Amino acid sequence: MSELSMPLSGEIPAHMNESLLPSASYHKVCVEAAKDERKRPSLYERFKPQLLILAFAFLSLGLYLLTKDTIAQSLQHENKHSDKNLNASIPLVPTRPYKDTAIHLPVLPTYGSAEQAQLGFDHVYVIHHLGHPDKLVRMAKLLQMLHITAEFVPVLPIPKANLPSPMAQPLEHMQEWHARHRIYRDMLDAGYKSALILDDSVDMELNIKTIMRAVHKNLPPNWDMFFPGHCGAFESSQPRPSDSLPALRHANMPICLHAHAVSQKGARRIVANLGPSPTTDEIISMAIMRLKERGQLQMYSLDTPVFAPRPADSQSRKSSLLAGNKKLQISAVNHLSTWKTGRHPRKMDTSA
């Protein structure tokens, strides 16, 4: 037998000294050391959180560098298309300055009687927030497609000389208050018995005229405010004033003013109780809700809104996520791409 070979029987050759072989305790130590080596974390595992943070930081930096030019170009494009020159973007309708300002707004034609063209109200106002001509153009096209006549009213900037010191509210909220209060006063001055007031960011059901005809047949004559669009979460749990229209409810707390109607009596009560400028930090929508809580305004709403803010509009994202804002069944805005002048989608409701 070669000196380098070992018997298969496992016996120790006679020429080998047993004391030179590894002992059982030595073997155990080696096994434990191997286990410890396997348990020891690798360099990647030790620094994994730091590496992930570093990778995320590089990814964010890369996305910023990629989108920076796009954002700048978008802002530059919006500045070029100011609210003063929209004739090229709005089909068939002219624009004119709003009262004694340099702000040009669309002038929509009269499509028929109030029942036909103004959803059953004496007048329709559309509030336009300056700096967003895309919303103005889209709303003008939407109203033309549906044959709805409306008057556009801008949220005007407040001159610095007219700002109180200290201001009760942020400037944006004060301008909103002024614009809505001005509409209520204008409605009274014009002698309108009712008016629908919309934001230029809203969408509506494609068959809105059919819906509003049903509403007017069932809306109680004592109404002060009606909310076909709202952010209220509990309107569906309120009692019905009429069994003929289950969707119509006594309003709970509809909040949000992106789509609401006011009667002449309601407008008079709002103007009498709320001044043209805020005196507290309460925004105008909550101040109006406070009048309802005190029993000074009789409000009605729909359990499911038929007007809703567009989720794509940055200013309406928060309100579009509120509980009361449910997705429209058939969005009118989504049909704009199929609409051409003089042609309408098959499901469109332009009749009285």
Helix/strand class: alpha/beta
Count of discrete alpha- or pi-helical segments spanning 4 or more residues:
10
Strand content: 5-15%
Shape assignment: globular
Distance between the termini: 113 Å
Share of helix, binned: 25-40%
Could you report the average pLDDT, rounded to the nearest whole number?
Answer: 79
The biggest beta sheet reads: 7 strands, mixed
Order of helices and strands: HHHEEHEHEHEEHEEEHHEEH
**Poorly predicted runs:** 1-10, 66-89, 319-323, 342-348
Radius of gyration over C-alpha positions, nearest whole angstrom? 35 Å
Main sheet: strand order: 4-3-5-9-7-10-8
Number of strands: 11
Helix-strand blueprint:
Elements: H1 24-39, H2 43-46, H3 48-80, E1 95-97, E2 104-106, H4 114-117, E3 123-128, H5 133-146, E4 151-154, H6 171-190, E5 194-199, E6 202-204, H7 208-218, E7 225-227, E8 248-250, E9 259-263, H8 264-273, H9 284-293, E10 299-302, E11 307-309, H10 317-320
Parallel strand pairs: 3-4, 3-5, 7-10
Antiparallel strand pairs: 1-2, 5-9, 6-11, 7-9, 8-10
Helix pairs in contact: 6-8
Could you list some keywords that capture this structure?
globular, 7-stranded mixed β-sheet, alpha/beta, two-stranded antiparallel sheet, 352 residues, disordered N terminus
